[in-house]
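User: Quick one: structure for sequence A, then sequence B.

Assistant: Sequence A:
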Amino acid sequence: MSNVVHASPWGARSRSSGARGWLAGFLFAWALGAATASAQDAPTAQAGGSIQPGPIYDLLIGTYTHGTSRGIYVYRFDSATGQVSPVSSVQTVNPSYLVVTPDARYVYAVNELPGDTGPASERGGISAFAFDPRAGQLTFLDRVSSEGNDPCYLAFSPDGRYLLTANYSVAADPGGSFAVFPLQEDGHVGAAVLVVHHEGGGPVKGRQDNAHVHSTVFTPDGHYLFTQDLGNDKLYEYRYTNDGSRGLLSPVPEGYVQMPAGSGPRHLVFAPNGRDAYLTSELAGTVTTLRYADGKLAPLQVLPLAARGFAGKIGAGAIHLSPDGKFLYATNRGDANEIVIFAVDAHDGSLKLVGRQSTLGRTPREFAIDPTGRWLIVGNQDSDSAYVFRRDPVTGLLADPTRLSIGSPVDFKFTPSS
C-alpha cells in the first residue's frame, strides 16, 4: 500500500528500492548534464568551411496519441547539420513528458490520462522502457498508476533512487498531487510510496477551480523539492531526506512561496550556478527571476512574455537555459505561438529581452536545446510539426528552421548515441 496523503504525510517512512545499477556517478552526471556525454563522431561545419568531428545524439520525442501519433519516437540527430533521421517508435498512450537515466539505459514516460474529457475515476500512468542507444530501440518494461489524473511531469531524485511525477488533475476529485515511486535495479518502477495532495484554488475560473501540480523540481544542492501548483499559485517546498530521519519528504516551516493571485506557476528551472532560478507562470504569461539560497526562493524580477500591445491570448509554457547559462528561452502559447529569448546577466541573474521567434505552428509546449548548444527543437502540438532552429551561441537568436512532421509532439530529450 502506498501512503496516500491529503494533509500531513510527514513522518511516514519510505520503502527503499535498493541500489540501482546506474547510481554510481549519478550526482556527477546530474550536475554536469548532457554536455559531458560521449557520442559518435559526425562532421561539424566550422568557419572557413573546414570540417571537424561532432556528436550524434538520439532524440526521443513524446506525443499525444489522440490523433496520428502512436507514442514515443526515436530519431538520430546530427549536431553538425541539425538533420533528424527516424529510427524507431514504441506504442504507449499520451507520453507527453519523458526522462532518461544518465546512462541512457532506461526511459520513463507519463501516460497523461484521463485527459480533459475523460472520467475522473481513471488514473494516469508511468511507463518504463529499456533503451538500447546503439539500435535506437525502446522495449516496454512495465506501467504503474500515477495515483492521480493527468500526470504531466517527471523528475529523478538527486540520488537516483526515486522517480517523481506531477499529477495536474483537471478533475477536482482527486485533485492536484505529486507522487514518489521507487526505481528498481532492472529499470522497473515500483508502486508509489508517497502521494501528496494539494488543496485550494485561485481566482481564474475554469483554470484554478482546484489544485493543479505542474512540475516537481529538486534544488541543485539536492536537499529540497519545489512543486509548482498552477491551481493555487504556490511553489510548495519540501525537505528531501532519503535516510528516513524526517520521512522521505517533509515540509519546511514556511511551507510555500506565494506567487501573485491568478498567475498560475508552471515550470521552474535552476541556473548552472545553483543560485538563480526562473519560473514560467502560465496564466499571467510571465517569467520570474528568483534567488535561491539555503532552501529558500525569493522572487526578484517579473517580465511579460507577450510583446507590448499584444491583445491575443497568452499562455507561458516550457522554460530552459542554454547549456552555457547565458540565455533563457520560454514558450508563449495562446495566440502568440513563439519562443521568447532572454539574455542572462552573469552578475545578478536578471533577464533582458533579446528576441522572439515564431514556432511556425500552433501551441508550442516543450522544446529542447541540444547539448552542443547549436540547435533548438520545438514542437507545435496542434500543428503536427516540430522545427529545428539553428541557434547562435553569441546572440542567442534562432534561424534557419527545418520542419519535422510528427503527430502532436510535446516533449523532447537528447541522449548520447552509442
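Sequence B:
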Amino acid sequence: MTVHLTAADYGAVLPEIIVLTGALVLMLLDVLLPRRRVEATTGVALLALALAFVASAHLWIVDTGPAFPHGLGAMITSDRFAQFFNFALLISSALAILLSPPFVRTSHFDPGEFFALILFATSGMMLMAAGINLIVLFLSIELLSLSLYILSGFDRSRPRSQEAGFKYFLLSSFASAFLVYGMALVYGATGTTALRGIVRCLGGHACHGAVSSPFVLIGIALMAVGFSFKISIVPFHMWTPDVYEGAPTPVTAFMSVATKAAVFAAFLRVFNYALGSESTKWFGILWALAIVTMVVGNVLALSQTNMKRMLAYSGIAHAGYVLVAMSSTNRLGVTAVAFYFLVYAFMNVGAFVVVLVLESRGEVGDEIRTYSGLFSRSPLLASATAIFMFSLAGFPPTAGFFAKYYAFAAAVQAGHTELAIIGVLTSVVSLVYYLRVVVVMFMQPAEAGEPSVRPAWTSQIALASSVAGTMIVGIVPWFYNLALQAVQSIFHYTS
C-alpha cells in the first residue's frame, strides 16, 4: 500500500516534530557548548516546549469538526482531544525542566542528554494522545518507556537509581508484552488496527476479520493489564514506590504526571470508543480495579515516612479516582478524566518542589521528618507545599476539589453511586497523610542551626506557576469548558 504524505499530514504532527527536533538540537548543543551548558540546554528545551504549545494551540483553533483531516495515513489525529492532552503534557514537561537545573548541577548530570531524554519521552506521550491506530499507540508507548528507563537510572552514582531503572525496565517490559498480545488478538478478531475500523467492525458493519467473542474478550483483558501496569493500577503497581523513590526527583515529578496522562488518553480512545460497544465486557474489570486501587493506594500511603514513596501511593490512589470517571462510560466521565490531568499536572509536580529544593542544597529532601520547621526557614516554600497537599486531598477551593467532584459526579450520573461513595471515603483517609506533611512543616520546630531555604529562580517560577494553576484552574470555568470541547471532538474522530 502506497501512502502519499502531504503538508497537512506533517501539520497534524507539528507539535511532536517540534519536540523531537528540540531533543536532537539539545544533543548537538551538549557537544558544541563546553561551558554554561545547563543554562543553554534549559533554555532550548523550554523554547521547544513553548513552540510546541503554540503549534498545539493553532491545531486546536483550526479544528473544524468531523471534516478535519487525520495525519500520516489516518494513523494520527490532531483533534482537540489530542491537543488538550498535549497542553497538559507540555506543561508537566516544562515544570519538570524548570525544577531540574539545580539538581542537574549538584548531581553532575549531563544536561543535554538529560533534557533530550525528557523531550523524547514527551514526544512519545504526545503521540500516544494523538494515535488512532493500535500500531501507533504501541510504538508511542515504547518511545516514552525507553526514554524513562534511562532517565530512571540516570544517576549512575546511586545504587537506588540503578535499581529503579532496572525494575522499571523489567516490569514495564512485561506490561508491553501483555499490551501487544491484547492488540494482536483484537486485530485478529476485527482484521484492522485502526480504531475507527474496530468501532465499525464491533458495531456490526462488514469487516475483514471474523469477530470472535473469546478473542475480543481475551484481548480486552490483556490490554487492560498492559495499560494498568503503565499507570500504576493495583495490583499492577508494585514497581511504582521503588521507582519513584530511586529515580532522580525531576524524573519522578515528570513521570508521575505525564506518563499517567498519556496512557489514560490512549486508554480512553481504545476502551471508551474503539471498544465502546463491548463496554459490558470490560466495565466490571475497571469497576473492580478502581475500587481496589483507591483503597490500597490510600491505605499504604498512611504508613510512609518518605515523601516520594508517599506521593507514589498517592498517585496510585489518584489513578483510582480517574478510573472511577472512566468507568462511567459517558461524556461527563471522559471530560472529568481530561480535566483531572490538567489539574494534576500543577498540583503533583508542585508537590515535588520541596524535595527538589532540599536535595539541591545537599539535604535529605525525601524524608518527611526533615521538613520540621520548614515554615520558619522558608515561609513561601512551606505555604506552597501546603496548598499542593490541600489540593491533592481535595480541599475546596483548590483545583483538586473540582477534579474529584467532576470524577465522582460522572459516576453518580452513570448510576454507579457506590464508586463515588468509596472515592469520597478513601479521600477522607488521604487527609491523614497529606495533613501530616503540613503539620510537620508548620507545627514542629526546626533543628537548631538549620539554615534558611531559598529556591533557585527557575524553581521559583515552577513553584509560582504550580500554585497559580492549582488555585485558578478549578475556579475559572473556562478550563473545564476546554476539556468539554476536547471530549466532544473525540466522538467525531473515533466513530
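Residues 229 and 236 are 5 Å apart (CA to CA). Residues 7-493 form one domain.

User: Thanks, that's what I needed.
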